[in-house]
Recover the amino acids of this structure.
C-alpha cells in the first residue's frame, strides 16, 4: 500500500469558479511540470473533494484541491547517530545550524560522518520516511544556517526562490585587511581554474557572480569582520571574491593571501624571509636553472616590511583551523504556509575566539 505525506490543500475561491484543475495546480498551487507528472502517476496524487480526477476537469467555488506526494527514503545513505543543531522543523522543512568540518552530503571517499547520515538517522528514530534533500550547500569548513526540504514540493519552491533571488543569504567572515571602500559590490564572473580544477577563479569568461559586502568591525589594519550577502550561488563564491580584492578569509588554506606566493622556495615562516634560503638549497636551485649563476646577486622576493606582514598573516591563519566563514542568516518564504521565515545562527566558538584575539591585537 502506498504511503503519502500529509496533503497540501487549496480551497477554490469564487473568483476562480470554472477554472481548469490543471490551471489551479500550476498557477495557484505552483506545482511544477515535473512534479505534476509524478502526481498524476499515483492514486491519490491529485484529488478534488477527495476524489481522483483528471486535471482537465473544471473546478467550482468552494472545491477542495489536494496533492499528495509518496513517502520516500534515502536508501543510499547510512543512518548514523551524529549530533546536529536544529533551528526549525515542520512537516515540510528542516533548518539546521551546520557545524564546521561537517560535509553536507556523502561524496566519493566520504560516505559516512556527514550531515546527511545524521539527519537520516534522526528521522528514522522519529519513525519518519523522508528523503534527504538539501536545498543548498555549505562548504565542509563553513558553518551556519542550512535548509533541507522534506518533500519534492518544498524543494522545488525554495529552489525557485533562490533562482529568483528572493532568498536572503547572509554570511559573516573574518578577513585579512580592510576592504576599500567599507561597503560595496564584488561583481566578478567565476569559473574553474583550468590549472587546478578543484579551485575557482574570477575570469571574464566565467559565470556571472555578485557578492555584496559591508565591513562591520575593523581590527587595526590587519583584519576586519565583514557581512556578506550572496546574490548568486557559485562554488566558493565568497572565498574567491574576497581573495580577488586582496582580503582573503582568515584560515583559508586554498585561497590564501598573495604574499604566500612570494615566499622564496624552501623558506619557512619564522626565518629571515628576505635572506637566501641556504647554500644547500641555492645549489639545488642553481642546478635546476632557477637562480642566476654563482656570483650574481638574487633579488629578494620579500622586503622586510612584507616579511613582517606575512608573518602576521600566517599567525592569524594558524588561529583558526578552517576558513573563518559562517552562514549567519537565511530568510525565505515558507513553501506551503507562505509565511516569511528568518533563521539566524550566532558566530560559533572558534570565530568568537578569533574575534577576541583580533580585538586584543588591535588594541596593542
Amino acid at each position: 500500500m502506498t504511503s503519502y505525506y500529509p496533503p497540501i490543500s487549496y480551497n477554490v475561491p469564487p473568483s476562480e469558479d470554472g477554472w481548469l484543475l490543471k490551471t489551479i495546480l500550476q498557477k495557484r498551487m505552483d506545482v511544477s511540470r515535473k512534479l505534476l507528472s509524478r502526481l498524476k502517476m499515483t492514486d491519490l496524487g491529485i484529488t478534488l473533494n477527495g476524489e481522483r480526477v483528471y486535471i482537465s476537469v473544471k473546478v467550482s467555488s468552494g472545491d477542495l484541491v489536494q496533492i499528495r506526494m509518496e513517502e520516500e527514503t534515502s536508501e543510499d545513505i547510512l543512518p548514523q547517530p551524529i549530533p546536529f543543531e536544529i533551528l526549525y522543523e515542520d512537516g515540510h522543512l528542516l533548518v539546521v545550524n551546520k557545524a564546521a568540518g561537517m560535509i553536507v552530503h556523502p561524496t566519493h571517499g566520504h560516505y559516512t560522518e556527514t550531515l546527511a547520515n545524521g539527519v537520516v538517522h534522526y528521522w528514522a528514530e522519529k519513525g519518519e520516511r523522508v528523503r534527504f534533500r538539501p536545498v543548498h550547500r555549505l562548504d565542509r569548513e563553513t558553518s551556519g544556517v542550512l535548509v533541507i526540504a522534506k518533500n519534492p514540493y518544498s524543494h522545488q519552491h525554495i529552489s525557485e526562490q533562490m533562482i529568483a533571488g528572493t532568498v536572503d543569504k547572509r554570511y559573516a567572515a573574518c578577513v585579512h585587511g580592510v576592504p576599500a571602500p567599507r561597503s560595496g559590490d564584488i561583481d566578478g564572473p567565476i569559473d574553474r581554474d583550468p590549472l587546478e580544477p578543484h579551485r575557482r577563479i574570477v575570469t571574464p569568461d566565467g559565470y556571472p557572480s555578485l557578492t555584496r559586502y559591508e565591513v562591520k568591525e575593523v581590527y587595526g589594519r590587519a583584519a576586519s569582520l565583514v557581512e556578506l550577502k550572496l546574490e548568486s550561488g557559485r562554488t566558493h563564491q565568497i572565498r574567491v571574491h574576497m581573495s580577488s580584492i586582496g582580503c582573503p578569509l582568515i584560515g583559508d588554506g586554498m585561497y590564501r593571501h598573495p604574499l604566500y606566493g612570494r615566499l622564496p622556495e624552501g623558506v619557512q615562516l619564522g626565518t629571515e624571509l628576505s635572506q637566501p634560503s641556504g647554500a644547500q638549497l641555492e645549489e639545488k636551485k642553481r642546478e635546476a636553472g632557477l637562480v642566476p649563476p654563482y656570483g650574481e646577486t638574487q633579488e629578494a622576493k620579500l622586503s622586510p616590511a612584507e616579511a613582517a606582514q606575512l608573518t602576521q598573516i600566517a599567525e592569524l591563519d594558524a588561529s583558526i583551523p578552517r576558513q573563518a566563514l559562517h552562514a549567519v542568516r537565511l530568510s525565505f518564504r515558507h513553501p506551503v504556509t507562505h509565511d516569511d521565515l528568518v533563521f539566524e545562527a550566532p558566530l560559533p566558538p572558534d570565530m568568537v575566539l578569533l574575534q577576541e584575539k583580533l580585538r586584543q591585537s588591535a588594541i596593542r
Observations:
- The chain is about 25% helix and 25% strand.
- The two ends are 71 Å apart (CA to CA).
- Residues 271-281, 284-300 have pLDDT under 50 and may be disordered.
- The helical segments are 21-28, 33-40, 115-126, 152-164, 237-244, 279-287, 304-317, 349-363.
